[in-house]
Amino acid sequence: MNEPLTLAVPCFGTSPKWVRMVEVWLAYYLKSGCQLPVIVLTDMTTEIPASILPPGGNVTCLRFSTPVLRQGHPFDVQGALICQAARFLGPLVVMDSDALMLRDPTAEFARLPASARIGMAPDAGGAPFVLNAGVIYFGEATPLEREQLVHAYNDTFTQMLDGHADNPLLTQLVWSALWHRAADEGRAYAMPARLNHSRLWPLHPGVIIRHHHGTDKWQTLEIPAHAR
Question: pTM for this one?
Answer without folding.
Answer: 0.92
